[in-house]
Structures are given as structure tokens and as C-alpha cells.
Amino acid sequence: MSFEATITSIHQMTPQVKQFVVEADEPFEFEPGQHTTVQFEQDDPDEDEDQEVVRPYTATNTPGSNKITLAIKRYDDGTASVYMHERKTGDTITLGDLGGNLTLQDMDRDVVFVSTGTGITPMIAMLKQYLEVGGGEVHFFYGEKNQENIMYRETLDQLSTEYSQLSVVYSLSDEDWDGPTGHVQEHLNDRLDGLDRDFYVCGVPQMVVDTKEHLDELGVPDERIFSEGWEDGEVEN
Prior knowledge:
It is built from five helices and eleven strands, in the order βββββαββαβαβαβαβ. It is an alpha/beta fold. The chain has a six-stranded antiparallel beta sheet, with helices on one face. Strands 9-8-7-10-11 form a five-stranded parallel beta sheet, sandwiched between helices. The radius of gyration is 18 Å and the shape is globular. The model has no long low-confidence stretch (mean pLDDT 94).
């Protein structure tokens, strides 16, 4: 089911990412980690009728209000991302109900979040939920190209100072700096004191597949690794 919502705030997070606060008439009902869809009609020069565009975007806040936050990266060839980056405060957009299977499974187990790029969006929501009600240690691994493109860095740094059970690791692939470099999943084994934890993984498909294979090599059972589930089909063997 689709419904109308109003953009009440827009914040430029990184050179390519904007965060949108979107407000609806009724409270949003969802589990942290789930996504909505942005829906709109676009002219199709090859067809007599307009083309319907539907794209998923994950809420980065926790439920309990009639507002959600969406962090959307603009791609020059991205139909929906360009559409959203052209919106202004006060504009009305059409959203779909929130859903998806990447949600926290056990609040009593230690957890590890591993993400790259905009794959951080479900992790931020789940992290906030876990810090509120979870009972274990949290390790948050985030990979980006450079410091300029790190999303939610201020939020993560603040949370890591407020919650002693939270450890945050940034890994950069295209910038020399004082912190870890290379693929973020390569730092799991040397940064964790034991692997008896639940792992949540989100990012570009190749990274997700590589991380799951790496965790398998380290002896982490499949039932302790959670992802959105579609990534394997996007990666060529």
C-alpha cells in the first residue's frame, strides 16, 4: 500500500548523500533495518504511458513516531536517487509500507555490524535499537573510500563515547590515514576477541558475499550470519 508523506528536513551528509526527514499522517510501523519504497511516475519516451519507478530506501531511525529518516546517495544514472536529490523541503512524495528481513534476531547475543557505503543505513537503525534494549557487546565495522564519504560518522563517534559496550572501526580503501585500510571485512578476526557472535552484513553484493565467505572460513556458522539475502544472485562465480 502506498501513501503520501512530506519532506520536512534535508541535510547534506556527504558530497553525494543527503538525509531526508519525511513525515506522514500516521506513525510509521516497522522493525529497525527495514526499508520503505519511494514511488513516482517518469516520462518514458519509448512508451505511450509513464513508467512507474519504485526504489527501496532504509529508515535510519527507530520507530515510534510519524517521521522516518532516509539517507540517499545520488548516482548520476540513478533515476530515483536523482529524483530525491531534486526534492525540496515541503515537497510531498509517495512511499510504500516498510518491510524486509534484515532485522535484529537476538537481543541477548553479542553483535557485529559490517557494512560499506549506503549499506550502513539499516545498520544505524539496528545499532540504535540494540543500544537501547540489547544486552551484549557491539562491534561496528564500516568501510568507505575516504573520510569525506563516511556516513553517520558524528553519530557513531558520539554513540561510542556514550556506550562502553560499543566499538567502532572505520576502514578506508582509497585514502592513507592513521586508521585501518583495505577491505573492512579483513579486520574482523584481528579486532574481535572471539567469534561467538551474530553478524549482520550489508553493502555492495560482492562485499556481502566476500564477508560471508570470510566468516565461513573463520568458522562462524551460517545461522549466525544475517544479510538481506539477495546478494549471492548478483555476484558472478
